[in-house]
């Protein structure tokens, strides 16, 4: 690597500007690069590898086989150890089991990775019964090796992928071999590939996308050939895969996107190409890199929702309509009266994610916290204390009597909500709320349904005109306190012990349209009204897709570190500052620690610095019009273009983490690390 | 002298301006003068009305008061230069700082010089009008277009409102525009007269204006970066110029580096220097800062720590403050109560004496550093200082129990060890009270542990757990004090594991009774500690950047997307009795046209770009260059001042958009002139276009006049008139209930 450095575009020694430091002499040029030059027609289009001279042609498959073998050997070595749950296996293993058991769950990542884990487990005979409760639990008789093996298999593929990518970019066998060695012997990569995690799957697709992008670039001289189509669509497939495993995959989409735009721009400038041809190029890329991945991504979710059709731990995160899809959920196949009427008994669900039901109980707010009246909270579980009766604000006649006529509640009506268990009215007044001091307190007030004018609420449906009926489950409703004009909402903050750690409910004076202040009616009991089946509100697939993405995004941004929690910072990663403990709390345990190979990682850092230096000096030299030999010109083209692609990949996978507010871990650096390794390999 | 002169023709040219005589020729552009006067009138008219606190004046005003009283404060909203400018206004008006800034709408008392407090922002706002004119002229557009731009800025209601009060946006916009203008001037001089006097002047002014913009608000940083990028691009073109020698290129690079990087950094530092020099008294925000910083302020902690011994020795009596300061500052504390035998969740404890972190000064915060090998608790003569790596015991002063930790789960953080003061219950639980002192910010491994300055970790010798503040607050049995634990899995450095000695004295009392008296008495001895400016600067800067205000919901906050269409307004002030009110509301026609202009610019540029790629040249080369450079400044300026808000998590208001909209407004005349010059081919079309522009401009004027009452706050409007002003349902015009 050191040998190759001075060779990069340093021809016109004496005329170099002082900016390029003192390495002006054309030093001994690197073997690998020179060999590559000899096989290329300067300036001409790249010739396919098959045209290479015979001895090398034989060496390449052998090298590839060797690299692959070594890679598999290093990843599969002592795979079943340790025979207990390591680190995040507790999550992803568990989610694999959920797929096998078909129970619905919620996770912040898209489903592909976990589906594949589940599939691998299913095929290898794991029955989904192991609970994966916490790291360190022993697997006992459960068959976990299949899942680990699957991850290790994908992790092993990284090495040949990287090898082929570098080979394609630099056309130099030693460079490719160096890259492969670096990855084979990087302890961090090995560790990360050996367990049931999403990262090997993500990195597999990511490297696959890069490899196929590079391959399709090198097919550019014969567009619309079979191999061109193959690599282009494979890029699309890999993009869908990467994004489907984790949203971090979007960065590789960005990388491919930028590369494609550059490509198209190049084609546009080629005047020998007619506009019709250009249109074809454009369409082919739209088809393979946008439509195909989108279709696959959507299909992935379709499978996800089809497989997970039983109610499970993820229900509460989703809306009522969504829950009605799940077998075993209490909303599944039930039928309720369609329109809200006076005298009905209802539950109200807050529309923010995991918002909970409007709830009250016999306990009062403690001394010193607002008025000493009955608590009103939001409660995540189903309970008889969530039941409220809708009454007219001005009359207290018993509407449930069979003789009285049915009267529907309409948009804009003023109503009163009486808590069924305690017969107190939903009430608000200008006392500050317990936690959100700028909001008003909400209480239960009155005895047996008689209260005061602070119990009156105006009910409004979002986006509806006055006088319309209110639909159960489907209408998004807000309740406006008539006396103060504030809106009933849930702040999302957890009350202290006196509030049973339920969620605070307040009346907000800020008239903002947020899910916090919107509710829908979920249960609805009114014997006088005919029930309709809930199937009519079956959400369309597009709605389900949108909702699950909203929930994932909110979940992702909700992962914020607590004040005193020690998390690692992005700048720790490249310098291998500290690792991550995978397993083994006690000193006697079998311990696994995620840590990169320091030689390799620091070497990578040095290379990045060197690369920047070389690029800048080459670019300046070219701009100054320094006359270069054709060989050097070709070399600098490789440096700027090929190296640029990899460098861009590194930047795209590293820099964005600086801007994220969420909890970051060491392993987030690994994709970036792959790119820096490839960069190292190139020199 | 023997300086070799042959290689210095460029240096010669660099300093050439010194050789010529200084000649002043006056040439007055009446357009500029008129625009300036109109700007001044529009911004300064009735400046001290309303004589009440308007919107964010309530926020900035408190800092002006603190400046007047020289009391230290930390404001996380930005660097201090803007606050200092406002305070300068107060200083010139003779403000004594005595006003309670507690609510919007409060009447100013007689001692508040309202006019001079609002003068500087208003002047800055007024000068934006001629600046806009000049920028368009420098972008090589016609004087007619330049006049149009200036008039649009002049008649922009939101800019007027924002300039007329003690707020910072107009100052920020002024410096941003000044920086852009001086860079353009510099660039235009570049071709003919590099290194001339005016070349240097405009180059340096660019740097100065950039640093001022950054110093007023951090948003200025993005314009600075934009200008740096443009300068980099221009320099890149210069590299390609074969006529320039390497040496002269180097000189150009150095000059730019000096003016655009070194000077701004130096200026930025100087803002903080002035800030810290002005504010030397301790005040309400002291507790955010470290002990060392607090000790450097007059009053407050300095009064207590003045004259403490510097080096901690065996036998020293100390209080230990946690460095993190979150959730609140607190000191290592113990008291006679023990941990409950069983917690509420059924887990057991060691039932030993509680060790907590206590947010108030208390005699129970005192600890004595003891040498494990000796019995005595006094400082020997001469004192034996404790160094990095030494093993000590910490004895609680009042109860004389030893700080201890063991393999028992902590009350609230079960993964960490419980920390207690050891009570010998005579059961199989031996004392484990040896701690190794590790100085985190040491310079060498033999550093002495210093009061206030040293940040120390205590590593437990038996279990290698680290003494840490968990941040959780204990239940009733622990008096809601903060939990202290032994962290076994210490993953690197975190401030919650670091402590520093705040109060300190050498213990002299042999007997416990005497010692208790001694612990209650104030410390006294003499060594003063002063932090260097850089240390103070780094700390303050860090705090400004990391301080988070929570619970930032606001009635008039908006999201960045609302700004383009101006869906929200902000009510700044309402007359206590009449319907007179002031709103931040833009000129609807201008905002809409600015959006259209940006859209047209982008589409046209893309179109031209694609056509040029196919070697079809619609524009002559120089017209294309003008078009591109105008876009770099205006669209670029809009983008860098707008898009970053999408990544910010803080509460956003409409006024954050004003710098961006200013750039967008500058784009309108550019696009109009381009359309008329290049796309209106026939004379008839041209005159029709001009007529359209006149009609459009009168509508801008009409809207300005319509909204003038809510821009200036007078005259007072009736209820129907106010209702008529509510052009959008989402606008919140205040209508008094009858």
UniProtKB/TrEMBL annotation, chain A:
The keyword Disulfide bond does not apply. The chain crosses the membrane at residues 104-125, 145-166, 173-195, 229-262, 282-303, 599-622, 642-665. It catalyses: a di-trans,poly-cis-dolichyl beta-D-mannosyl phosphate + L-threonyl-[protein] = 3-O-(alpha-D-mannosyl)-L-threonyl-[protein] + a di-trans,poly-cis-dolichyl phosphate + H(+); a di-trans,poly-cis-dolichyl beta-D-mannosyl phosphate + L-seryl-[protein] = 3-O-(alpha-D-mannosyl)-L-seryl-[protein] + a di-trans,poly-cis-dolichyl phosphate + H(+). SMART domains: MIR. InterPro entries: ArnT-like_N, MIR_dom_sf, MIR_motif, PMT-like, PMT_4TMC. One of its GO terms (cellular component) is endoplasmic reticulum membrane. Residues 1-55 are annotated as: Disordered. Residues 41-50 have a biased composition (Low complexity). Residues 337-393, 406-462, 467-524 form the MIR domain. This is Protein O-mannosyl-transferase 2.
UniProtKB/TrEMBL annotation, chain B:
Its EC number is 2.4.1.109. Pathway: Protein modification; protein glycosylation. The keyword Glycosyltransferase applies. InterPro entries: ArnT-like_N, MIR_dom_sf, MIR_motif, PMT-like, PMT_4TMC. It is a multi-pass membrane protein. It is an enzyme of class 2 (transferase). One of its GO terms (molecular function) is dolichyl-phosphate-mannose-protein mannosyltransferase activity. The keyword DNA-binding does not apply. Gene3D superfamilies: 2.80.10.50. GO terms for cellular component: endoplasmic reticulum membrane. SUPFAM superfamilies: MIR domain. It is found in: Endoplasmic reticulum membrane. The chain crosses the membrane at residues 81-101, 113-133, 139-155, 167-187, 199-216, 221-239, 259-280, 588-610, 652-672, 684-704. Pfam families: MIR (PF02815), PMT (PF02366), PMT_4TMC (PF16192). Residues 309-372, 383-440, 444-504 form the MIR domain. Keywords: Endoplasmic reticulum, Glycosyltransferase, Membrane, Repeat, Transferase, Transmembrane, Transmembrane helix. It catalyses: a di-trans,poly-cis-dolichyl beta-D-mannosyl phosphate + L-seryl-[protein] = 3-O-(alpha-D-mannosyl)-L-seryl-[protein] + a di-trans,poly-cis-dolichyl phosphate + H(+); a di-trans,poly-cis-dolichyl beta-D-mannosyl phosphate + L-threonyl-[protein] = 3-O-(alpha-D-mannosyl)-L-threonyl-[protein] + a di-trans,poly-cis-dolichyl phosphate + H(+). Belongs to the glycosyltransferase 39 family. This is Protein O-mannosyl-transferase 1. It comes from Accipiter nisus (Eurasian sparrowhawk).
């Amino acid at each position: 690597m050191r040998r190759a450095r001075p060779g990069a575009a340093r021809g016109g020694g004496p005329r170099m500007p002082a900016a390029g430091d003192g390495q002006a002499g054309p030093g001994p040029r690197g073997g690998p690069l020179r060999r590559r030059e000899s096989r290329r027609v300067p300036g001409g289009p790249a010739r396919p590898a098959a045209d290479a001279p015979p001895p090398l042609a034989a060496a390449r498959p052998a090298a590839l086989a060797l690299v692959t073998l070594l890679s598999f050997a290093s990843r599969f070595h002592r795979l079943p150890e340790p025979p207990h749950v390591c680190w995040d296996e507790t999550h992803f293993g568990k989610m694999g089991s959920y797929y096998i058991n078909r129970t619905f769950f919620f996770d912040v990542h898209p489903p592909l990775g976990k589906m594949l884990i589940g599939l691998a487990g299913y095929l290898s005979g794991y029955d989904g019964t192991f609970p994966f409760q916490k790291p360190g639990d022993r697997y006992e008789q459960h068959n976990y090796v299949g899942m680990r093996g699957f991850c290790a298999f994908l992790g092993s593929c990284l090495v040949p992928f990287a090898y082929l990518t570098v080979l394609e970019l630099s056309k130099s066998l030693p460079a490719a071999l160096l890259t492969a060695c670096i990855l084979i012997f990087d302890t961090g990569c090995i560790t990360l590939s050996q367990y049931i995690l999403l990262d090997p799957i993500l990195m597999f697709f990511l490297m696959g996308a890069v490899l196929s992008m590079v391959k399709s670039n090198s097919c550019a001289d014969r567009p619309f050939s079979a191999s061109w189509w193959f690599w282009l669509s494979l890029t699309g497939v890999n993009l869908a895969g990467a994004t489907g495993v984790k949203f971090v995959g979007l960065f590789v989409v960005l990388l491919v996107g930028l590369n494609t735009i550059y490509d198209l721009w190049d084609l546009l400038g080629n005047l020998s190409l007619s506009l019709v041809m250009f249109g074809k190029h454009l369409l082919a890329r739209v088809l393979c890199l946008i439509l195909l991945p989108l279709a696959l991504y959507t299909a992935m979710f379709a499978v996800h929702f089809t497989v997970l059709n039983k109610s499970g731990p993820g229900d509460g995160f989703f809306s009522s309509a969504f829950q009605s899809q799940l077998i075993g959920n209490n909303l599944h196949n039930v039928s309720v009266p369609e329109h809200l009427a006076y005298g009905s008994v209802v539950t109200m669900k807050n529309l923010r994610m995991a918002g909970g039901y409007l709830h009250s109980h016999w306990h009062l707010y403690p001394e010193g916290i607002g008025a000493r009246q009955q608590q009103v909270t939001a409660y995540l579980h189903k309970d008889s204390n969530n039941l409220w009766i809708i009454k007219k604000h001005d009359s207290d006649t018993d509407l449930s009597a069979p003789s009285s006529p049915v009267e529907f509640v309409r948009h804009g009506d003023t109503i009163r909500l009486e808590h069924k268990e305690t017969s107190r009215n939903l009430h608000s007044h200008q006392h500050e709320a317990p936690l959100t001091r700028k909001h008003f307190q909400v209480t239960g007030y009155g005895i047996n349904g008689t209260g005061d004018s602070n119990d009156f609420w105006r009910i409004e449906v979002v986006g509806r005109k006055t006088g319309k009926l209110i639909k159960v489950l489907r209408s998004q409703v807000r309740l406006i306190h008539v006396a103060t004009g504030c809106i009933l909402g849930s702040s999302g903050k957890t009350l202290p012990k006196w509030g049973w750690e339920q969620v605070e409910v307040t009346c907000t004076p800020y008239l903002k349209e947020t899910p916090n202040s919107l509710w829908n009616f979920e249960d609805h009991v009114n014997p006088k009204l005919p029930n309709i089946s809930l199937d009519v509100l079956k959400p369309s697939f597009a709605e389900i897709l949108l909702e699950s993405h909203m929930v994932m995004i909110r979940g992702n941004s909700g992962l914020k570190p607590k004040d005193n929690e020690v998390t690692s910072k992005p700048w720790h990663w490249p310098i291998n500052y500290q690792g991550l403990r995978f397993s083994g709390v006690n000193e006697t345990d079998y311990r696994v620690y995620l840590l990169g190979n320091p030689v390799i990682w620091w070497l990578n850092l040095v290379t990045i610095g060197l690369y920047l230096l070389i690029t800048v000096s080459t670019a300046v030299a070219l701009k100054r019009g320094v006359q270069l030999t054709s060989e050097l010109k070709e070399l600098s083209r490789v440096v700027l273009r090929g190296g640029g692609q990899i460098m861009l990949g590194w930047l795209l996978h590293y820099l964005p983490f600086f801007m994220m507010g969420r909890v970051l871990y060491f392993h987030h650096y690994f994709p970036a690390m792959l790119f820096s390794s490839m960069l190292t390999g190139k020199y | 002298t023997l300086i070799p002169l042959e290689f210095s023709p460029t240096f010669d040219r660099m300093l050439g301006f010194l050789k010529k005589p200084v000649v002043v020729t006056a040439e007055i552009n009446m357009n500029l003068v008129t625009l300036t006067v109109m700007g001044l009138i529009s911004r300064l008219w009735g400046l001290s009305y309303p004589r009440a606190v308007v919107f964010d004046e309530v926020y900035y005003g408190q800092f002006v008061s603190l400046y007047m009283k020289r009391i230290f404060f930390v404001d996380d909203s930005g660097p201090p230069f803007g606050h200092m400018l406002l305070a300068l206004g107060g200083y010139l008006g003779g403000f004594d700082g005595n006003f309670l800034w507690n609510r919007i709408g409060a009447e100013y008392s007689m001692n508040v010089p309202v006019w001079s407090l609002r003068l500087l922002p208003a002047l800055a706002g007024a000068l934006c009008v001629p600046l806009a004119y000049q920028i368009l002229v420098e972008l090589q557009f016609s004087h007619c277009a330049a006049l149009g731009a200036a008039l649009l800025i002049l008649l922009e209601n939101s800019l007027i409102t924002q300039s007329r009060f003690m707020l910072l946006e107009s100052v920020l916009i002024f410096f941003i525009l000044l920086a852009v203008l001086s860079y353009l001037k510099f660039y235009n001089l570049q071709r003919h007269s590099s290194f001339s006097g005016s070349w240097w002047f405009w180059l340096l002014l660019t740097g100065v204006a950039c640093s001022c913009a950054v110093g007023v608000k951090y948003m200025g940083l993005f314009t600075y970066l934009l200008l740096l990028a443009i300068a980099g691009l221009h320099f890149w073109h210069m590299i390609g110029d074969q006529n320039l020698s390497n040496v002269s290129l180097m000189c150009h690079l150095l000059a730019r580096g000096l003016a655009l990087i070194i000077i701004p950094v130096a200026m930025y530092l100087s803002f903080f220097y002035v800030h810290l020099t002005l504010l030397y008294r301790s005040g309400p925000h002291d507790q955010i800062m470290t002990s060392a910083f607090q000790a450097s302020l007059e009053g407050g902690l300095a009064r207590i720590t003045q004259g403490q011994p510097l080096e901690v020795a065996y036998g020293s009596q100390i209080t230990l403050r946690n460095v993190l300061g979150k959730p609140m500052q607190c000191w290592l504390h113990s008291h006679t109560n023990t941990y409950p035998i069983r917690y509420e969740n059924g887990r057991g404890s060691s039932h030993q004496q509680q060790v907590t972190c206590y947010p108030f000064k208390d005699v129970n915060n005192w600890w004595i550093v003891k040498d494990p090998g000796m019995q005595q608790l006094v400082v020997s003569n001469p004192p034996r200082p404790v160094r990095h790596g030494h093993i000590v015991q910490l004895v609680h002063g009042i109860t004389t129990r030893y700080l201890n930790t063991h393999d028992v789960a902590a009350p609230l953080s079960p993964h960490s060890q419980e920390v207690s003061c050891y009570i010998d219950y005579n059961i199989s639980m031996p004392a484990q009270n040896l701690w190794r002192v590790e100085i985190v910010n040491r310079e060498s491994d033999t550093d002495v542990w210093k009061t206030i300055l040293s940040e120390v970790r205590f590593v437990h010798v038996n279990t290698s757990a680290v003494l840490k503040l968990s941040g959780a607050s204990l239940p009733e049995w622990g008096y809601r004090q903060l939990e202290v634990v032994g962290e076994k899995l210490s993953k690197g450095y975190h401030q919650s594991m670091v402590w520093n000695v705040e109060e300190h004295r050498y213990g002299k009392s042999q007997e416990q009774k005497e010692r208790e008296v001694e612990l209650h008495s104030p410390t006294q001895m003499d060594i003063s500690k002063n932090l260097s400016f850089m240390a103070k600067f780094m700390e303050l800067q860090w705090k400004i950047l990391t301080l988070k205000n929570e619970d930032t919901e606001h009635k008039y906050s908006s999201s960045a997307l609302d700004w383009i269409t101006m869906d929200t307004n902000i009510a700044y002030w309402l007359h206590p009795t009449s319907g007179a009110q002031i709103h931040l509301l833009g000129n609807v026609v201008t905002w809409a046209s600015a959006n259209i202009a940006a859209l047209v610019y982008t589409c046209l540029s893309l179109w031209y770009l694609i056509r040029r790629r196919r070697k079809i040249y619609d524009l002559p080369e120089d017209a294309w260059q003008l078009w591109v450079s105008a876009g770099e400044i205006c669209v670029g300026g809009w983008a860098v001042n707008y898009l970053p808000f999408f990544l910010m998590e803080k509460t956003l208001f409409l006024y954050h958009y004003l710098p961006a909209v200013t750039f967008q407004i500058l784009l309108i005349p550019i696009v109009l002139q381009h359309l008329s010059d290049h796309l209106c081919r026939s004379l008839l079309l041209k005159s029709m276009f001009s007529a359209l522009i006149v009609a459009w401009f009168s509508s801008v004027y009409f809207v300005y006049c319509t909204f003038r009452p809510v821009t200036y706050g007078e005259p007072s409007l009736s209820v129907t008139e106010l209702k008529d002003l509510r052009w959008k349902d989402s606008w919140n015009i205040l209508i008094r209930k009858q």
